[in-house]
């Protein structure tokens, strides 16, 4: 049986997500802002959760209707056959988001849907789920427009960019699904060198290795669908075995990562050791401005610092021309990509980008700038 579903992602990666989930079994896809609607079987939903590099959540649509008042939303939630999906012994968390809803309190909507679920269970089995706001078994999401409400059941649990491999991190690391999306937008292929010269805790390098070795990103974590009432454990075990068989750990990769911050390199090394991927990456410490290309050609992709305070902006104004000089002098034959919210960057590095791709980092509008460093002409 096909289920109506919704997958969320980073704004700017919707087309990539649609192509990915179509390959994993999605049908009747409709792309929307920061996500996509589609149909899929429960088995394919498990495949998607395990294998998607780009999705943030995959949810099943349980209810949809128009509304005027909170009581209309209560009645919609009350009609859903919740016992088809989970038991009264499961814990729940309900959350609500909206665009242009006329209702005064989204918290009240959340309360009404929680009450509807509990009233349903009390009537059917004379017991009700507990509410757990930190680590619930089941997450229910309500989405309101100006005049419609949709109720979703989350199948992912923790967001899918939480792969389970990042034990240590620096402040504000790039999210894993965003990192994977940037790599895909760059067009990098596993037979090419890959270099992140401002690697932080190493997220871009890890995601490149995952793509290069065809590692399923969800193999080290659990999912909410494992607690569904109709969870097929045997089917999921087959899906995991199939994913493991597709791995190619014998492939030789040329992954390089460096950072000017010694602590960042140490954190990155420890992360890679914990997930047993250290053999696939070559770390080095140092300032990018003094670095030479680690191979004759390849893809350079990095997320450089971008300032907010005035003194940070002044410092970047001095840094960018020096980055441009480093690219021209040391990275001929490389395709270089910089992901930043600082829209001054191309002008200040004094290079013309061949592509400018808008992608969001959370609520922050950013650009992925492509600079093709052709030998001779750009030097």
Q: What does this 3D model show about the protein?
A:
By secondary structure, the protein is of the alpha/beta class. It is built from 10 helices and 14 strands. Strands 2-3-1-4-7-6-5 form a 7-stranded mixed beta sheet. It has a 7-stranded mixed beta sheet with strand order 10-9-8-11-12-14-13. A hairpin with a 2-residue loop joins strand 2 and strand 3. Helix 2 packs across helix 7, helix 3 packs parallel to helix 4 and helix 5 packs across helix 6. The longest helix has 21 residues. It is elongated. The mean pLDDT is 93.
- Number of helical elements: 10
Strand fraction band? 25-35%
* Principal-axes shape call: elongated
Return the average pLDDT rounded to an integer: 93
**Computed structural class:** alpha/beta
Termini gap:
59 Å
Radius of gyration, taken over Cα atoms and rounded to an integer in Å? 23 Å
H/E series: EHEEHEHEHEEHEHHEHEEHEHEE
DSSP, total strands: 14
Could you give the order of strands across the largest sheet?
Answer: 2-3-1-4-7-6-5
Fraction of helical residues: 25-40%
Report the sheet with the most strands, covering strand number, pairing sense and barrel closure. Answer: 7 strands, mixed
- Runs with pLDDT <50, length 5+? none
What is the gist of this entry?
With 379 residues, the protein is α/β, with parallel strands linked by helices. The protein has helices spanning 14-23, 42-51, 70-79, 106-125, 176-186, 203-213, 233-245, 262-274, 310-330, 345-349; strands at 3-9, 27-32, 35-40, 55-66, 92-98, 138-144, 148-154, 193-196, 254-259, 281-285, 298-302, 334-340, 355-361, 364-373.
